[in-house]
Automatic annotation (TrEMBL):
PANTHER family: AMIDINOTRANSFERASE. This is Amidinotransferase. It comes from Rhizobium lusitanum. Gene3D superfamilies: L-arginine/glycine Amidinotransferase, Chain A (3.75.10.10). It comes from the Bacteria.
Length: 309
């Protein structure tokens, strides 16, 4: 059974960025194992443009408000992933984040923040980007998976998730940090927490096997279960197919779980059944975008603000 009831976890509006010259970011390839290096062409850029266009239309057709911004430049190869440079929070708060590589710092856009101020109630904007010269990074809701109901910030340690910045964010925004080490099957650290897990209202999908410390792994699972959520355990292969890179949104008739067609194909029947007991699954087809090392969750910056009208 799906529910239309309001949930603080599931925003009903998102920001998306449509790239006109999409390509893989060579600067981020060093620690993003999900990236596929390939020869980029105008045809692939055109495909990426079409994938974001269709994804936005699909979400709108299910009742999600999509604020679609254009990126016609060539200096911001990862701009299609806006969830890393800003986040929004109930009570009218916006955070702007310090990014690890220079090209990603150029993704920050004043027009996005101005749109939010015009259309939603915004009390303050806290800008952490001044930490960048000190080598301190916290890449938004890529680095942290936020439980807006239970006020927990789940975070896998990495160069993109600095404990100093995380502590500062959690103090400002009233979250409890829950930090852990996570590695893939080859022993490489997970670069962004949101490829590993997704917290929805009634369930959480998580690659528990990648959390290296057994005791910490049990603590993370127990914390999620204590909030009344069903746990969908993902295998390493399912994580590689972006099954953890999903986001719960509020549609017009029910809450939905937005993920990619790649991710959906990787899920088993029992896993789908657990998810569908609480949310409707909406699969978005973005295989070209996924070559850049991110999937549906990365392309959507959720808006947890109150509309002005």
């Amino acid at each position: 059974m799906t529910h239309a009831a309001y949930s603080a976890q599931a925003p009903s509006a998102v920001v998306m960025v449509r790239p006109h010259h999409f390509t893989v970011n060579t600067e981020t390839a060093a620690d993003n194992r999900f990236q596929l290096s390939t020869d980029w062409s105008d045809e692939l850029a055109s495909r990426a443009f079409d994938e974001i266009t269709l994804a936005a239309e699909t979400l709108e057709s299910h009742g999600v408000t999509v604020h679609l911004f254009e990126d016609s430049g060539r200096e911001t190869p990862d701009s299609v992933f806006p969830n890393n440079w800003f986040s929004t929070h109930a009570g009218g708060h916006i955070a702007i984040y310090p990014m690890k590589v220079p090209s990603r710092r150029r993704e920050r856009r004043s027009d996005v923040i101005e749109m939010l101020k015009q259309n939603y109630r915004v009390q303050d904007v806290i800008d952490y980007s001044g930490l960048e010269p000190d080598g301190i990074f916290l890449e938004g809701t890529g680095a942290m998976v936020l439980d807006h109901i239970d006020r927990v910030a789940y975070a896998a340690r990495s160069d993109r998730t600095d404990p100093i910045a995380l502590e500062r964010f959690c103090t400002h925004f009233n979250f409890e940090p829950m930090v852990f080490d996570a590695r893939d099957g080859d022993g490489v650290s997970i670069y962004h927490t949101n490829v590993l897990m997704c917290v929805a209202t009634g369930f959480a999908v998580i690659g528990t096997g990648m959390i290296t410390d057994a005791r910490r792994r049990n603590e993370v699972v127990a914390r999620l279960q204590r909030s009344g959520r069903d746990i969908v355990h993902l295998s390493n292969a399912q994580i590689d197919s972006f099954a953890g890179n999903a986001i719960e949104l509020q549609g017009k008739e029910s809450r939905i779980l937005a993920l990619s067609t790649t991710a959906l194909a990787a899920l088993g029947d029992d896993q789908r059944a657990t998810i569908e007991a609480d949310a409707r699954i909406i699969a978005l087809d973005i295989p070209t975008i996924e070559r850049a090392g991110g999937s549906v969750r990365c392309t959507l910056a959720g808006i947890h603000l109150t509309p002005r009208n």
